[in-house]
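Provenance and format

Records in this collection were gathered into a single text stream. Each protein contributes a sequence line and a C-alpha cell line. The two records reproduced below are adjacent in the stream.
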Amino acid sequence: MRRPVHLVAALCALVSSLALVGAPAPARADYDTEFATFLAQTVIPAARAAGVPQSVLDRELRSLTPDTGLPGLGRPDRPEAPPKVDFQAEFRAPGGYFKESQFRALAGPGRTLAQKHAATLKAIEARYGVPGRIVLAIWARETGYGAARIPHDGLRVVATRAFMGDRRAFFLGETVAALQILADGHISRAELRSSWGGAMGQPQFLPSSFLTYAVDFDGDGKRDIWRSVPDTLASIANYLKEKGWVAGRDWGYEIALPASVSCTREGPDRRQRIADFVAEGVTRASGRPFPERELAREANLLLPAGRLGPAFLATENFYVLKAYNESDVYALFVGHLADRYGSDAGFVGRWQDTPHLSRGAVRDLQLKMEKAGYDVGGADGLIGFKTRRSLGMVQEQAGRTATCWLD
C-alpha cells in the first residue's frame, strides 16, 4: 500500500540520522555459580536424554566455566536484542568485504590445491554433484584452506552461548551435540577447538552439522574434519548437496542492470526466466552471452549494496551457499572466488563507499519500518534483500531515485 508522504519522509530522515557506531559491550559479572546451576538443571538433563553417558558429563562439565569474553553476549537473566556492535565481517558494509587483495591471496593457492587434490575433487563432484571449485572456495573462506588458527574451547563456547547468548535454545542443542561428539570419540576435548561462534574444524561446522553432514571420504573409518583434507572437502560437498544444490547450474552471473529495471524487484521470491531479464535489457557484465541452456531457467536480481555496487542474477544455488552462512556477501564471496580459480578477473561493477550502521541501529530502523507497514524480512539487524527493496520503496515514494541502500 502507499504510505503517506510525511511518513516516507520521516523514514528517509531516520535512515540518515541513525548513529553509525555501536555502544560498548556491557560489563560482565562473575556468573560461575549461575552457570553451574544452568549446566546441572538444563544441559545435563538434555544431554542425558540424547544418550550422552554420565561419565562423559562428569568429565567434561565438572570444571567448566563460562567464557564471558566472547562477543555478542547478553545477561543470563535477560535475553537481549542483537548486539550493537558488529563482530562478523558479513554484518558490515558490503564494499569492504570484497578487497581485491583477499581474492589474489586465495585464488593462486586455490589453483595449486585444485591440481594437488584433482582426483579427490573429481570423485567428490561425481558423488555429490557440487563443483570442486565451489568446495575449494568455501574451504578458503572458512579457514584459509585449513591454515587458520582456531583458538577457542569449542564446548565452552557453545555452552556459554546457550547460557547467555542471543540464541540460547539453538546453542543448547549445539552444546548437547558437542557432548555427543566427545562421547563418540570423534575428537578429544583438547582438540575440540572452535571459533568464537562455535564453528569447528577446517569446514567450520557447528557440532550439529558435524553429526548430520560430516563424512568419511578417505576410508579410514573416521569423520575427521580437523586433519583429513578428503573428509573436509567431501563434508562441505555433502552439506551443500543435502541443502539442495542443483547439479549442472552455476551460482549466478554479474550483470549490467538498466535503469528501467527497479532495484525493488530484487529477491528470490521474484524470480523469472533469464530470457525475460534479457528481454528487459539485462546483459552480462562481461559482455559474453548467457549460456543457451540457462535462458529458460529462472534466476533473480541480487544487489548486495543496492545500486551502489555490482548487480547479479542469482540462481537457486546461490541460496544453497547462503545455507552455509546466512549472508549475501558471504555467498557472493564464495561464488566469485570459485570463478577466479578459472579466470582471475575481478568484478566489473564498482563497490561504492556506503554508510555503515551497527547491527543494533539497523534493527531499530527495521522495527520502525515494520511499524510503518514495510516488509523488511524480520528485525534482525541485517540489511537483507527485503530490507534493501523496502528502502528502495521508501526512496521511490519520496520521489527520489531508488538505490535500495542507506543514503
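Adjacent record:
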Amino acid sequence: MRKRERENPCGICGHFHKYEEGEVCGVCGHRSKSPDDGEGTRESAFPTEVLQGFLFLGSYDNASRTEVLKTLGVSHILNTVPDCHNLYCSSFTYHCLQRDKPLDFEEANQFLEQCERDKSHVLVHCMTGKNRSAAFVAAFLMKSKGWRLAQALQWVKDRRPQVQLTDASQHDLQEYEQKLFGPSAQPFVPTESSASLGFGYQKPEGDIQAPIFDKMTMLSAFERVSLNDPPTNITLGAESTAGVNPGDNNNNGGMER
C-alpha cells in the first residue's frame, strides 16, 4: 500500500501531492510528467537564454538541475513562486519573492539589476517557466531596455515559444507599463490574434539587437509624404510669409489639417 502523503513528499517541489499519479500540487502547481504526455511535450533540461551571458528563464525542474546551471555559469536564482523551495542555498544565491498578488516587479528588478551590475548569470523561474517567470522577465526588459510591453513579450516569446501568460499576469504587466511610461501610455490589450503572443512583428535577430519595432516614433510632415508626391500646401523660405494674412486659414501658407 502506498505511503500516506505526509510521509512521502514530492521529490521536486517538496510538497505533498500524488506526484507519481500525475496529480497537480495544490500549493505550487507542480505536476510530474506522465507517459500520456507524449515525447513531444518533454521539457528541456536547459533553461532558455533570454539575454546572452546574463539572463535565463526556466521552470522549477530547470532550477533543480545543479550541474546544468553550473555549466551555464548560473550563480543567482530568482524564485518567483513564494511556495517553491529554494533547493540548493549552499550552491546558489537565491532571491524569493514573497508577494503572490499582484506581481512585485520592482523588487524583482532590483535583484536583477544588481546581478547585471555584478555580471552574474541569473535564472528566473516559476513552476513551468511559462507564466509568472516570463512576466517578470518581460518587466525587466521594459525597465532595463526601455521597451514597451509588446516588444518585451515578443522578445521573450521568440526565445521561449511555450510562454503563455494568464489574464492576471497580463493585467499586472499593463499596469507596470503605464507606471514606467506614464498614464497616457497606450496599454497592451490582449486580442484573439495576440493570445499566443505572436503580435505579428518581425522576429528580432541576435541577442543584442532590439526588436525592429523598438523605436516607433511619429513621422514628421516631410516623412509622411512620398518624395514623388510632394505637398502643394507648403512653401519654404521667406516667401512663405509674404503677402499672407495671418487670419486667413484658406491661404496656401496655412498648415491646418
